[in-house]
Amino acid sequence: MFELTLLAPEDRVETLSEALEALDALSVSVEDADALTEAEQALFGEPGMPPPKAGWQRSRVVALFNAEAAAREAAALLQAQDFFDGCEILAVTPLADQDWVRLTQSQFDPVEITSTFWIVPSWHEPPAQAQQVIRLDPGLAFGTGTHPTTRMCLRWIAARSLADQRVLDYGCGSGILAIGAAKVGATDIVAVDIDPAAVESTRLNAANNHVALHAGLPDQAQGLYQVVLANILATPLKVLAPLLCAHVAAGGHLVLAGILSRQVDELKAAYAPWMALQVTDELDGWVLMTAQRP
Question: What would the pLDDT profile of 118-177 be if each residue is shown by its tens digit?
């Protein structure tokens, strides 16, 4: 593998990235060329907010190619284009061979939900104090337990017994919440998602954890549940308010996540016709909102 590294002004980053992809770059990444200096700029994106800029005032664009000849040919072709004005080729360098599997695995350690409830990748041994363990490896579907929204949902689940209760995980992603519910006793669990890949991921993860659940598309959610979980984002949660509330049985709980602290009032207003939401947990700027039907 070889890396082609370029320097580009902010207004050329998007065009340059698209050109590199068209030239069969295996990947393209953009970094702040002034990182770790006084000129460093912070660019952040949040759900529900306009996307951040495509690049920094001075951006380092790094493209990965499978051969040196391909990287050098791309560099030559880019230099001949009008849009390359103001850009610069910094280097074509070989990428050192690494054990990418081991490198990736080293970035994922067991995640503590409570002192006794842990999420543990398959290549780790569970901590000695773990009484409940979800085995989950990083994959294509969202939900590995590291994000604050997932951790808060699991903290809510871990704090109670759901023995023999019917549970709905709406927008299941990896199925982690449904599996967590099974670990604390739920026996009739339905996990649904609009993404078929998430449904398949949920089935595989459930099998790996030796729990039984029904995974499918949203039309598989039928009837009433003692617990309805939805870890999505604020906008779809508002749209889904009447549907989710309609699935909550008398005395049942609604548990919502994917909500930023500044979105609390919006969610309370959206759900007010059906249920009274309250903030019951907060972590790193995200909140968990729950309600109980009388």
Answer: 999 888 888 899 999 999 886 655 566 778 999 999 999 999 999 999 999 999 999 999
Q: What is the pTM of this model?
A: 0.68
End-to-end alpha-carbon separation of the chain, Å?
Answer: 61
Residue 171 and residue 270 in contact, taking contact as beta carbons nearer than 8 Å: no
The neighbouring-strand residues paired with 88 are 7
Q: Amino acid identity of 183?
A: K
**Tokens (6 digits) for 93:** 């360098």
Note the pLDDT of residue 45. 47
The C-alpha atoms of residue 114 and residue 96 are separated, in whole angstroms, by 40
Write the DSSP assignment of the chain as a string of letters: -EEEEEEEEGGGHHHHHHHHHHTT-SEEEEEETTTTSTT-------TTSPPPPSS-SEEEEEEEESSHHHHHHHHHHHHTSGGGTT-EEEEEEEPPP--HHHHHHTT---EESSSSEEEE-TTSPPPTT-SEEEE----SSS--S-SHHHHHHHHHHHTS--TT-EEEEES-TTSHHHHHHHHTT--EEEEE-S-HHHHHHHHHHHHHTT---EEE-GGG--S-EEEEEEES-HHHHHHTHHHHHHTEEEEEEEEEEEEEGGGHHHHHHHHTTT---EEEEEETTEEEEEEE--
Q: Packing angle between helix 148-158 and helix 176-183, nearest 10 degrees?
A: 20
Q: For 195-207, what is each residue's pLDDT tens digit?
A: 999 999 999 999 9
What count of other Cβ atoms lies within 10 Å of the Cβ of residue 93?
Answer: 14
Burial 141-169 (b: 16+ CB within 10 A, else e): bbbbbebbbbbbbbbbbbeeebeebbbbb
